[in-house]
Specification:
single chain; 13 strands; UDP-galactose 4-epimerase, domain 1; 2 domains; binds uridine-5'-diphosphate
Length: 311
């Protein structure tokens, strides 16, 4: 089987490429490298089953030969990134999704959309099941990501209904692990890098907001399960164990042995107050659930950043 992965050089995209190559797929990766990095795929550079093409998928995608699946994982995904790249984020979610779906339609390929828990916005239903329609501010700063992904879901569903494209929509909740950029801006990488370099741990707001953090290997297991045995309706993928941001800070301090002080900074606008996936559907349909605890996943991620900072 030959597959295309957009956003191949990104955090999730590169882990997905690893998994696909290991499973025997031939992989064509696309990335414009605005938030991804070739280094994430350096170990695959000479692999006969892998090729990285530098391309912005907001422009038409042309791939020769057969394609059996398209995994659309291209997009800035850290709030810090999409606030800096609002138009690129809207374009990759809309035009990029349209192009990736067009490719899937032309090749009669299965299409897998990396969607997000941000489709639920600052949720008023907790935990969030797939049936919840969300609470999104379309014109707030996060709207560029949230609405692009909501549009992407609607577009995927339309291609399914009108053209019969076989689709999967995975709603990915906060995921962390090796290959996050040290300056990515998301909470796990920020706290670990701050702890390891003795800088203050920056808790936004009072730290009482919650997130549920999934280790990247678990997430990729879920993506593969959805690809292989899912159905076209959206499915939550995430770890349902919920923590406050303050608890995360304390855990990172304990696991790193860091003496960094905790400082409080303003809460970003529209920052969701709580987030936790209801993964009943993933458990029932896919037989999937996360296995790696936050403590274990953080240990592995801390190890990665220790080496990176030393190098
Ligand atoms: N956050 C924080 N300090 C940081 C970065 C993020 O307290 O240095 C908070 C942020 O305000 C949010 C949570 O951590 O409440 C998760 O933020 P992240 O950017 O990782 O992803 P989000 O879930 O908001 O998309």
């Amino acid at each position: 089987m030959r597959v295309v992965v957009t956003g191949a050089a990104g955090f999730l995209g590169s882990h997905l490429c690893d998994r696909l190559v290991a499973a025997g797929f031939e992989v064509v990766g696309l990335d414009n490298l605005i938030t991804g990095a070739r280094g994430n795929l350096a170990h695959l550079a000479k692999h006969p089953a892998f090729r990285l093409v530098e391309h912005d998928v907001s422009r038409p995608i042309e791939i020769g030969g057969a394609v059996d699946a398209v995994f659309h994982f291209a997009s800035p995904a850290s709030p810090a990134d999409y606030l800096k790249l609002p138009i690129q984020t809207l374009k990759v979610g809309s035009l990029g999704t349209h192009n990736a779906l067009g490719l899937a339609k032309a090749k009669k390929a299965r299409f897998v959309l990396a969607s997000t828990s941000e489709v639920y916005g600052d949720p008023q239903v907790h935990p969030q099941p797939e049936s919840y329609w969300g609470h999104v501010n379309p014109v707030g700063p996060r709207g560029v990501y949230d609405e692009a992904k909501r549009f992407a879901e609607a577009m995927a569903m339309a291609y399914h209904r009108v053209h019969g494209v076989d689709i999967r929509i995975v709603r990915i909740f906060n995921t962390y692990g090796p290959r996050m950029r040290p300056n990515d801006g998301r909470v796990v990488s920020n706290f670990i890098v701050q702890a390891l370099t003795g800088k203050p741990i920056t808790v936004y707001g009072d730290g009482s907001q919650t997130r549920s953090f999934c280790y990247v290997d678990d997430l990729i297991d879920g993506v593969m399960a959805a690809f292989e045995r899912g159905d076209p309706a959206p499915i939550n993928l995430g770890n349902p164990t919920e923590f406050t941001v303050r608890e995360l800070a304390d855990l990172v301090l304990r696991l790193t042995g860091s003496k960094s002080p905790v400082v409080f900074e303003p809460l970003p606008q529209d920052d969701p107050k709580q987030r936790r996936p209801d993964i009943t559907r993933a458990r029932d349909l896919l037989g999937w659930e996360p296995r790696v605890s936050l403590e274990e996943g953080l240990r592995r991620t801390i190890g990665y950043f220790r080496e990176l900072l030393a190098a």
